[in-house]
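Technical note accompanying the year-one report. For the benefit of new consortium partners, we illustrate the data format agreed upon in the data management plan: each record pairs a sequence with a structure-token string. No post-processing was applied to the example shown here.
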Amino acid sequence: MSDDHVYLSLAEGHEDDTRWAYGTGFEDPLHGVDTTVPEGVDTGELAAVCVALADDALVSAQRLAEWTTRAPELEEEVALANIGLDLLGQARLLYARAGQVDGTGRGEDAYAYFRDAGDFRNVRLAELPCGDFAFTVVRLLVLSSWRLAHFERLATHPDPVLAAIAAKGVKELSYHRQYAAEWAVRLGDGTAESHRR
């Protein structure tokens, strides 16, 4: 092992497997997907759907990030952060698609950072203050169930890019829903107070 360069030391013995480190060696989920908008698809409606879904994901991700250092256990901090990262990834892909089809050529940052609050089209539930852990769990359960139902339908959308984003999202959202459902049952079975709530 070489001490001259930390990264090179870590990489020794992993030359053939570029996925040994987080963030490396992963294929673009839209690699090879035709970005041409099919005939008959209204680009204005497509962009609006992409922006609304992206706004939901971005705002939800921000709310989940508020649990970093505040969750009941370190494991839950990591789980909520990973769910937030999944949603952030969905938002980025959806914003990028909106910029491709809305005629403006805007990038994901333009949608995420350079709009007024009133221009966001997220559902109101996503932006409510975090409250306690139980509220976050219930909100995640409702939003992930609702979003999963949408993405399952969108996986067959005529636009190949939106369909690919949705298909990737179905896998992530299934986990989000499962995580939230397990916590909802655990919290609900806990005490008289949790039964009441």
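Partners are asked to follow this layout when depositing records. Helices lie at 6-11, 43-65, 74-101, 108-113, 124-127, 133-154, 160-188, 192-196.
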